[in-house]
Amino acid sequence: MTAFSLNPEQTARCAELRTLAAERLRPLAEKGEPGHVNRPLVTALGEFGLLDGLFEGGGAGAGPPGGASSGALDLCLTRESLAYACTEAETAFALQGLGAHPVHAHGTPEQRERWLPPVRAGHAVAAFALSEPGAGSDAAALSLAAERDGSGGWRLTGEKCWISNAPEADFYSVFARTSPGAGSRGVTAFLVPADRAGLTGTPLDMLSPHPIGALAFDGVRVGEEDVLGEVDRGFRVAMTTLNRFRPSVGAFAVGMARAALDATLAHTAERTAFGGPLKDLQSVGHQVAEMATRTEAARLMVYAAAAAYDGEGPQSPGIARRAAMAKLIATETAQYVVDAAVQLHGARALRRGHLLEHLYREVRAPRIYEGASEVQRTIIAKELYAGVDAPTFAHEEEPPA
């Protein structure tokens, strides 16, 4: 992986985003109702032009004004910067991208023209409907059935669960099984507007109150015009979306880790105990040094994975492995750093409303969604072993000892 550092323009942009999130977006986030989509916050993300940066150049209604493209590294820098100052704004931003990316990358010109401009403006809320109660992170085991209805379309029957922005999204990128028994080769992606007959949803009450819910499909009709990509090729739509966003999940985690680290530096420099500031205790200094080192290592892996995606393309060998590594190390690191920060702050960090109390609840979910840490390790191992030739023996019945 190429070593690099951010240029002055990128560094300045990150500082601007942190200020914007703290001064303009956080007040809107604080007015939101926990567990529900904060539409004023999403609209503000559009008004400030942040949602333009979710999409790479190309496609009707996609990408920033003027046709400039926005890459995976820019996405990571934005998510890290927003997460540092306002996790709610970061999450609202990311969910717009996750839900709409299949439309941007695989949709028809008509689908893009209909949905991407309102997504970028913050007027339409998108959702990525992949997970199911019985499948979890195993995207090839989906059971939501898409059965031909005899009129050139399908009827969707089944359930989705743990869907961010459900049941309040305006449309869903839905993954359903069109060919039973075909594994990953029998999944198709569909664009399903929320007002389709037979589609209902219920909210879920989570540890960290985000808009997450379950969806029920009772014979929801979709047609050829609703297909995203190709029939029975929806697994590719899902994986290319996740490969783009997994490093940026790591960036979200790095943003939280950096916020926890900075809060710890300030606290241990000011708080006195045992005759002096906490920072003068070797055990504290060593703990903070470990937190900072792990955070920086995770940050660089996230940037490297995103830069590889931008430079080599989403289909290049090693992209999935790098994305998995970045998400794995960053989310696990953030969990460690936030937990250590709580320990160094003591009981005050456990009070409702404290920054670290908030981060402690927020930091847990990224180790699960978009592929749990165990799934990331499986992806990494599979790709590593794919490049190792199996040993061959002259006499199969007598392998070497």
TrEMBL record:
GO terms for molecular function: acyl-CoA dehydrogenase activity; flavin adenine dinucleotide binding. Pfam families: Acyl-CoA_dh_1, Acyl-CoA_dh_M, Acyl-CoA_dh_N. The keyword DNA-binding does not apply. Residues 8-122 form the Acyl-CoA dehydrogenase/oxidase N-terminal domain. Belongs to the acyl-CoA dehydrogenase family. Residues 127-218 form the Acyl-CoA oxidase/dehydrogenase middle domain. Keywords: FAD, Flavoprotein, Oxidoreductase. Residues 232-384 form the Acyl-CoA dehydrogenase/oxidase C-terminal domain. The lineage of its organism: Bacteria, Bacillati, Actinomycetota, Actinomycetes, Kitasatosporales. Its cofactor is FAD. SUPFAM superfamilies: Acyl-CoA dehydrogenase C-terminal domain-like (SSF47203), Acyl-CoA dehydrogenase NM domain-like (SSF56645). It comes from Streptomyces venezuelae. InterPro entries: Acyl-CoA_DH_CS, Acyl-CoA_Oxase/DH_mid-dom, Acyl-CoA_Oxase/DH_mid-dom_sf, AcylCo_DH-like_C, AcylCo_DH/oxidase_C, AcylCoA_DH/ox_N, AcylCoA_DH/ox_N_sf, AcylCoA_DH/oxidase_NM_dom_sf. This is Acyl-CoA dehydrogenase. PROSITE patterns: ACYL_COA_DH_1.
